[in-house]
Amino acid sequence: MPFTPSDIIKLIFAFFLPPLGVFLATGCGADLLINVILTILGWVPGILHAIYVIFRS
Q: Is the full-model pTM beyond 0.70?
């Protein structure tokens, strides 16, 4: 599956503000809540989860 420009923008947002990248990929839901909690606990877990969610969707 090739990358689209929107995927690249989601990945950029996922690196700098992980919950925003997840929101753009899935909207409001359980993934967003999990990512907010992980980002509060640590920036790196939030980034890893955001990248996982973006590639999964």
A: yes
For 3-25, write each residue's pLDDT tens digit. Answer: 889 999 999 999 999 999 999 99
State how many domains the chain has: 1
Count of alpha carbons within 13 angstroms of residue 30, beta-carbon side: 0
**Residues of the domain holding 52:** 5-56
Cα separation, 26 vs 42, in Å, equals: 21
Transcribe 18-47 into DSSP letters: HHHHHHHHH-SSHHHHHHHHHHHH-HHHHH
Other CB atoms within 10 Å distance of the CB of residue 53: 22
